[in-house]
Specification:
Length: 161
């Protein structure tokens, strides 16, 4: 039995091929990645446990993202140089920023895959590994938010209280 990608309509001939089900439709790896990344741009990340004007309709899951990047010889050398002169180590700062962005994008992608539209309570930590590697660990709770309209609040008031 073959599977047809819901987006590009190409046959996914082998069931061992990587394909994903998003919103109850099956996609090849390429199309799934594009759809997830497009939808991930709309996912809200916040360190708070609520977002003004929205209510949590469903707590979906806890999500964690780990990103480890090598700093490389040049970053290490420039970091030592900057440290010696009391300057900022912009090479390391860029590596940490890149790792943080990648971890946040992974949180957003996991929210899309699991049916959420926000990740609340986001927390992130930095760590250093041997071999000139730095890591960022981010976690939070995937939720599905709905606008806090008067109609929604009155309809679901027992559940909200």
């Amino acid at each position: 039995m073959s599977i047809i990608c819901s987006s590009c309509k190409k046959e996914i001939s082998d069931l061992t091929d990587d394909y994903r089900i998003i919103l109850n439709k099956e996609y090849c790896s390429h199309c799934a990645t594009e759809i997830i990344m497009e939808k991930a741009e709309q996912v809200i990340l916040t360190t708070t446990n609520h977002i003004d004007g929205f209510l949590v309709e469903e707590y979906v899951d806890i999500v964690t993202s780990e990103v480890v990047l090598g700093t490389g010889f040049f970053s290490e050398f420039s970091g030592d140089f900057a440290d010696f002169f009391g300057l900022r180590s912009t090479g390391f700062e860029r590596k940490l920023q890149d790792a943080k962005k990648a971890a946040f994008m992974q949180l957003k992608a996991q929210a899309v895959i699991r049916g959420g539209n926000a990740v609340i309570g986001v927390d992130f930590d930095y760590t250093e590994f041997s071999g000139n590697r730095v890591g960022v660990i981010a976690n939070g709770t995937i939720v599905h938010l709905v606008p806090a309209t008067e109609e929604y609040v009155s309809k679901h008031s027992k559940r909200i209280l």
